[in-house]
Amino acid sequence: MENKDIVISVSILSSNFKNLEKEITSLNFSGIDEFHLDVMDGHFVDNISFGLPIIKCVKSLTNLPIETHMMVDDPYEFIESFTKAKVNTFTFHIESKSNIKDTIYLLKEKKISIGLALNPDTPISAIEPYINDIDRVLFMTVYPGQGGQSYIMSVNDKIDEFTKKYSNSNILIGVDGGIKLDTIKNSFLSGARMFVSGTGILNSNLGYLGVVKELRKTILR
Ligand code: DX5
Ligand code: ZN
Question: What distance in angstroms lies between residue 163's CA and the mean position of ligand 1's atoms?
């Protein structure tokens, strides 16, 4: 296992929006692999976060790939405009109201990488019919809706089960929520290879560069 097989992604939800340009610039040099942009519509989850203007802004400030995590009722409706904004991965929830097959079909047509997210209480059987059509699965390790929550340990069993069952597939297994220095190793051992961290990076007293380095070390230690 080498570090290049690990994807560290930062969720900017809890970043300093008073100076977003400075934040993105610092994160560009922190050693992260990807930006994770949490889109919330106030329906699928209670909060409303941001949409296209902020996504375009981040895109203009980085060359790193961008994943949009769609915590919205109807992700299908966003595909056209998000594709134009050149997001790299469009991750939507199996619990959303869009027709899953149609959403996957349109994303394939747009040649955009496809992620399917599932909430802590959703069994892996819900996403199994789509496994061969997606690029990554995003296990929510908190209930979606806000940053800074605690990692739900029991999700590790679900990741374990998935990893064993699909060990021959190329699917990227991601985790999102509560990823910090004390939780990352266990999700790695369960099979996760993509780690989304918000406050774990943004609020760390090691600084962005220091904490990203430490997260990587902790995985391989
Ligand atoms: C939760 C979001 C996460 C969140 C991660 O609804 O999907 O991406 O911002 O933040 P932390 O790492 O602080 O739990
Ligand atoms: Zn997220």
Answer: 22
Whether 157 sits among the annotated catalytic residues: the reply is no
Contact 6, 195 (CB under 8 A): yes
Dihedral sign, Cα of residue 27, residue 171, residue 139, residue 215: negative
CB 76 within 8 A of CB 106: yes
Catalytic residue among 38, 74, 102, 160: 38
For 68, 69, 111, the CA distances from 184, given in Å and listed in that order, are 21, 20, 31
Residue boundaries of the structural domains of the chain: 3-220
Q: How far apart are CA 190 and CA 215, in angstroms?
A: 16
Q: Residue 21 corresponds to which tokens in the numbers above?
A: 């340009």
Q: Please confirm, yes or no, whether 38 is among the known catalytic residues.
A: yes
What does CATH list as the number for 3-220? 3.20.20.70
Residue pLDDT, tens place only, 55-112: 999 999 999 999 999 999 999 999 999 999 999 999 999 999 999 999 999 999 999 9
